[in-house]
């Protein structure tokens, strides 16, 4: 989003200077303290997630020894970061990346590429990162697997021009782990006719856990020219994360959109990176994004219609969620 990018760039320049204030030795203890303090001063969800970061320090400091190996240190630091339960928080070394994945591990997968092939076939269209096809019941189907894959007005205008004859559209973002917010805003803009408030963003203004700026409004501007005016069902699962989570939040406010599937995985914090004395980098959520009612969406967004894929349908090569979406769209003609 243009407005987000302006705020974020301002935030980066002011934020990066903060890391020069404290110097830590390149020792086991020094790297531990550096990581703990970077998170303490700049991570944005401590209060919302009710994490006692001081207690975490006490518990993990007892596990740090100058005699421990690099691998052991990496394991302990990764486990400490997992205390915040955030998929945007990673420790990156040359040999591994510490990551938190329980936000989707304990949920149904609700996506199968082999079954999806039964719907796409081999004659689907490709427009940059989009795969699309008009199904045999005159429902348009779009799959967008990553917001890291760029899309432009040329791609989207062509797709929606072809879908003008359709009775509705299924927009499938299952397993979309995020990417560029500009791409998610671009796609969403084709389903809005008016400038619409969809979210707020805050950024850290101090070292305290609750030191934030005022909320800055985030709007979706309608696309110029052709826009889709019929019903659209957005299919989601737990692996919809980060920019995909933000896209689903935007589509909550689109006038003809219906969210269907599983709760999204969340990941509403804008990530930022820093570096430890030993060269390992840490990535973490630094600026929270709220919905238009100023409610947190960090832990995901519930669908309008809950629907899982069933074993019975999967055994027949059917995607329960696509079939339910077709049924809903046909009922709304």
From TrEMBL:
<dbReference type="InterPro" id="IPR029045">
    <property type="entry name" value="ClpP/crotonase-like_dom_sf"/>
</dbReference>
<dbReference type="Pfam" id="PF14684">
    <property type="entry name" value="Tricorn_C1"/>
</dbReference>
<dbReference type="InterPro" id="IPR005151">
    <property type="entry name" value="Tail-specific_protease"/>
</dbReference>
<dbReference type="InterPro" id="IPR028204">
    <property type="entry name" value="Tricorn_C1"/>
</dbReference>
<dbReference type="Pfam" id="PF03572">
    <property type="entry name" value="Peptidase_S41"/>
</dbReference>
<protein>
    <recommendedName>
        <fullName>Tail specific protease domain-containing protein</fullName>
    </recommendedName>
</protein>
<dbReference type="GO" id="GO:0008236">
    <property type="term" value="F:serine-type peptidase activity"/>
</dbReference>
<feature type="domain" description="Tail specific protease">
    <location>
        <begin position="108"/>
        <end position="308"/>
    </location>
</feature>
<dbReference type="GO" id="GO:0006508">
    <property type="term" value="P:proteolysis"/>
</dbReference>
């Amino acid at each position: 989003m243009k407005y987000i990018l302006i705020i974020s760039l301002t935030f980066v320049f002011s934020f990066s200077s903060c890391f020069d204030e404290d110097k830590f030795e390149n020792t086991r203890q020094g790297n531990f303290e550096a990581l703990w303090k970077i998170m303490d001063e700049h991570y944005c969800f401590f209060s919302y997630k009710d994490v006692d970061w001081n207690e975490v320090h006490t518990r993990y400091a007892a596990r740090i020894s100058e005699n421990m190996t690099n691998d052991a240190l990496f394991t302990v630091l990764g486990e400490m970061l997992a205390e915040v339960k955030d998929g945007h928080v990673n420790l990156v070394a040359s040999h591994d990346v510490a990551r938190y994945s329980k936000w989707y591990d304990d949920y149904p997968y609700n996506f199968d590429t082999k079954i999806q092939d039964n719907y796409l076939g081999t004659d689907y269209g490709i427009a940059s990162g989009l795969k699309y096809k008009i199904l045999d019941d005159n429902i348009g189907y779009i799959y967008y697997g990553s917001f890291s894959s760029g899309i432009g007005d040329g791609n989207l205008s062509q797709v929606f021009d072809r879908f003008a004859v359709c009775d509705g559209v299924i927009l499938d973002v299952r397993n979309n782990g995020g990417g560029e917010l500009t791409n998610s805003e671009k796609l969403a803009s084709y389903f809005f006719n008016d400038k619409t408030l969809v979210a707020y963003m805050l950024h850290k203004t101090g070292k305290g856990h609750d030191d934030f700026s005022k909320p800055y409004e985030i709007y979706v501007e309608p696309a110029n020219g052709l826009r889709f005016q019929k019903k659209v069902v957005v299919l989601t699962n737990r692996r919809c994360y980060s920019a995909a989570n933000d896209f689903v939040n935007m589509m909550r406010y689109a006038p003809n959109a219906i969210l269907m599937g599983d709760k999204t995985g969340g990941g509403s914090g804008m990530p930022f990176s820093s570096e430890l004395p030993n060269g390992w980098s840490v990535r973490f959520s630094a600026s929270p994004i709220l919905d238009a009612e100023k409610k947190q969406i960090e832990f995901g967004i519930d669908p309008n219609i809950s629907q899982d894929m069933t074993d019975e349908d999967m055994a027949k090569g059917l995607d329960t969620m696509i079939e339910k979406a077709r049924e809903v769209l046909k009922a709304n003609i």
